[in-house]
Structure formats: structure tokens, C-alpha cells
Amino acid sequence: KNQVEQSPQSLIILEGKNCTLQCNYTVSPFSNLRWYKQDTGRGPVSLTIMTFSENTKSNGRYTATLDADTKQSSLHITASQLSDSASYICVVSDRGSTLGRLYFGRGTQLTVWP
Amino acid sequence: EADIYQTPRYLVIGTGKKITLECSQTMGHDKMYWYQQDPGMELHLIHYSYGVNSTEKGDLSSESTVSRIRTEHFPLTLESARPSHTSQYLCASSRTDRTFLIETQYFGPGTRLLVL
């Protein structure tokens, strides 16, 4: 069983609307959680990163939240644009060192329609 | 945009052929990685390197091999390609923030491999 579960698997929204993507994890110990955006045919690009002491982090129209107690994170996208169409991947690291291992979710495929 | 490059971007090849996927980075990162990603699935680590002459196998068993003769170069080789090797291969390199001990991985654009 994957230790990082994302929902929904796919999502279609209209341009200008907001949406929220979910990430639940069971990774322990926990060091940090990162959201990546992966455009079709490209490699993932980091959007935000949060350690256990942070519960919210923004990057433009992207806002990530983290509840380390319930092991849940969300990525909220406001005023969506066509360029937001991509896969959004949640990645959890189990320790903050060179020995840390990364656990990848399967991603949420977001499609923004005009 | 990260300075990490992969070639070729797309490759269609017949069964039994030997192939090498190239990956290079100009950021001076010591650590480099190869991931395999199938559509709709998570990334799986197949190889990593902590520096020159250092290579390790990842979590997912792979018939591929890697080498790290230069810091900036981390090629992946398949001696005899098979249809089961069809996938997307992503290369990454990383640096570690020494203050917060947070590692940031930078990914290349990937190579889509199709073995017929």
C-alpha cells in the first residue's frame, strides 16, 4: 500500500474557479512535505515545501496546508488558469538528511477548461 | 527552470537493442537520481548516486545500469531493451539546505521510451 494517497485521481474545473487537492500520508518519521507540478511530457517542478512546524505555505495562487497530527495536506488553487492543467504530486520525506527517503503519491490530474 | 537535461526526449526502439539515456546537470549537484514513471502511477526510484564513482540501486528493481564518472553526467544503460521497459524515465539532481537539512530535487524533462 502506498504511504502517500492523493485524491481525487482526476479533476476537471472551469477556468477562473478554485479547487482543492488532497494528500494523506502514513510516512513516519516525518520531515517535510512537498507539492510538485508536472506538466505533460515534463519533469516535476516544486511548488511548495512544508516542515512539520509549518501549517500553511503560499506560492502565488497556490496555497498548501499541512496538519501533521492527522497527516493530511491540501493544495488550494485559486482563480485557475488554463496553464494550471497538469498533474500535482504530493511527496513526503521521512527525515531531513542525506539518508532521507522520498515517498511519492500518484498525483491528481487537473484539467482546466476554458 | 532547472539546469538539468535529458536526451533523447523520445525513443522508439526494437527489442534486444542496447540503449543509453543521457542525463546531465550544470548545477554542480553531487546527488543524482533516476526514476521510472508509468502513466497515472507514482515515481519509482531505480538508481541514485551520491557522487563520482558512487552508484546505488533504488527501491524498484531494474535491469538497467548507471555510471557516474563525472559529477555532471549520470547516464542510464539498458543492455537489451524489452517491451516491459517501456516507460518514462526521469533524471533528477539535488542539493541540501544545510541549515534546515531539506533536500530539493530538480527534475529533467524526462525520456519517453517505447520498446517494440
Record field, number of beta strands of chain A: 11
Structural class of chain A: mainly beta
The H/E string of chain A reads EEEEEEEEEEE
First-to-last CA distance of chain A: 37 Å
Mean pLDDT of chain A: 92
Mean residue pLDDT of chain B: 91
| pLDDT < 50 runs, ≥5 residues of chain A | none
Strand content of chain A: over 45%
Oligomer state equals heterodimer
* Uncertain residue segments of chain B: none
Helical stretch count of chain B? 0
The secondary-structure class of chain B comes to mainly beta
Specify the biggest β-sheet of chain B: 7 strands, mixed
Sheet-strand content of chain B, in percent, reads over 45%
Q: What's the total number of strands of chain B?
A: 11
Shape of chain A: globular
Helical coverage of chain A, percent range: under 10%
- Terminal CA distance of chain B: 33 Å
- What is the helix tally of chain A? 0
- The radius of gyration computed from the alpha-carbon positions of chain A, rounded to a whole number of angstroms, is 14 Å
User: What sequence of helices (H) and strands (E) makes up the elements of chain B?
Assistant: EEEEEEEEEEE
Description of the structure:
Chain A is an all-beta fold and 114 residues long. Helix content of chain A is 0%, strand content 55%. Chain A contains no helices and 11 strands. Chain A has strands at 4-7, 10-14, 19-25, 32-38, 45-51, 56-59, 62-67, 72-77, 86-93, 102-104, 108-113. In chain A, strands 2, 4, 5, 9, 10 and 11 form a 6-stranded mixed beta sheet that branches. Chain A is globular. In chain A, 34% of the residues are buried. The mean pLDDT of chain B is 91. By secondary structure, chain B is an all-beta fold. In chain B, the strands form 2 sheets. In chain B, strands 2, 4, 5, 6, 9, 10 and 11 form a 7-stranded mixed beta sheet that branches. A 4-stranded antiparallel beta sheet of chain B has the order 1-3-8-7, with no helix packed on it. Chain B has strands at residues 4-7, 10-13, 19-25, 31-37, 44-51, 54-57, 65-66, 76-78, 87-97, 102-107, 111-115.
